[in-house]
Design goal:
Blueprint (H helix, E strand, L loop, with lengths): L1 E9 L2 H10 L1 H6 L2 E7 L7 E8 L3 H8 L1 H9 L2 E10 L13
Antiparallel strand pairs: 1-3, 1-4, 2-3
């Protein structure tokens, strides 16, 4: 499993979210296993997405493809998103209630 952290400026966050949700099956067909969407508190025109992928080649090829670049443009992504591939090192479970 590999993770891709993507940070993008968008024209309209709500319109971007609608387009992002509509393309979930398309991303899954190309190797996406899951994702989390975040919005920085101090940047209302920005989104941060942590994707999970099968391997590191899949997301790089996918996001460089003409089809995905067109989908991002239609969703209102402005410019090229900042993307970082990462491997999981540590994961903790949420702390439960103390006794």
């Amino acid at each position: 499993m590999v993770y891709l952290l993507a940070r993008a400026n968008v024209a309209d966050v709500d319109a971007w979210q609608t387009a992002f949700d509509a393309n979930d099956d398309y991303r899954t067909e190309h190797g996406q296993r899951g994702y989390q969407v975040f919005r920085p508190r101090d940047a209302h025109d920005e989104v941060v997405v942590l994707f999970e992928w099968d391997d590191e080649r899949s997301p790089v090829e996918f996001f460089d493809s003409p089809g995905m670049r067109e989908r991002m443009r239609e969703a209102g992504v402005q410019g090229r998103p900042e993307m970082t591939l990462a491997d999981e090192v540590t994961r903790t479970a949420p702390a439960g209630p103390s006794a």
